[in-house]
Amino acid sequence: MSQVDKLQDAEEQVAQLREEEERRERETRAEDLRRAPLADTAAKTHTSITAPLAAVRTMVNMRVGPLPELHELAVSIKETGLLHPPLVRATGDDGTPYELLAGRRRFSAMALLDEAEGAREDWRFTLVEGVSRREALTMQFAENFHQHKPEPVQFARAARAIMSEDESLTAADVSRMVGAPLT
Question: Is the distance from CB of 78 to CB of 113 less than 8 angstroms?
Fold first, then answer.
């Protein structure tokens, strides 16, 4: 067998090993997706509502610093409409009956439009029924995590805040709920 044949055989073996590893990885991921969720947050009822921005309070966001490209997002909302209304939950407070769960950039861009054009009373939101504080923190963390991977310290702070709301949760549980890899 020539050196070229040996090299070609070795390359084919490596390719087969890679294919087998990719197949095992796909099977592992499929099995993970078949697991039951740790919470019933995804099954909560969603209702479309309209409200002024003043009726919505914001939670402390896990992200720090300025929100990028707000002006561009405000222009997009003005031109094409609000494609994905921010998620809110009921607070039980008559003064600010809603709390923002997800959509901080959209909410801030909407505020820019209110400043430029006058406050609107009919901004669209999606009300998620029966969301606990732990679920609210988890939703916010999941959205932020998938937009921009946090630094390890930010990840730890957010996970600790979620775990403090439910002491039965582990860091692995929080990672799973937000779709973060365990590595």
Answer: yes
Q: Do 141 and 162 contact (CB within 8 A), yes or no? A: yes
Q: What share of the chain is helix, strand, coil (3-state, %, to 5)?
A: 55, 15, 30
DSSP assignment letter at 11: H
Residues paired with residue 87 on neighbouring β-strands, in sequence order:
102, 126
* Residue 122 φ then ψ, to 5°: -120, 35
- Which pTM was predicted? 0.76
Compute the C-alpha angle 170/176/182, nearest 5°: 80
Taking the CA atoms of 59, 62, 63 and 65 in sequence, report the sign of the dihedral they define: positive
Q: State pLDDT tens for residues 86-103.
A: 999 999 999 999 999 989
- Per-residue pLDDT of 88-146, as tens digits, reads 999 999 999 999 998 988 999 999 999 999 999 999 999 999 999 889 988 888 887 77
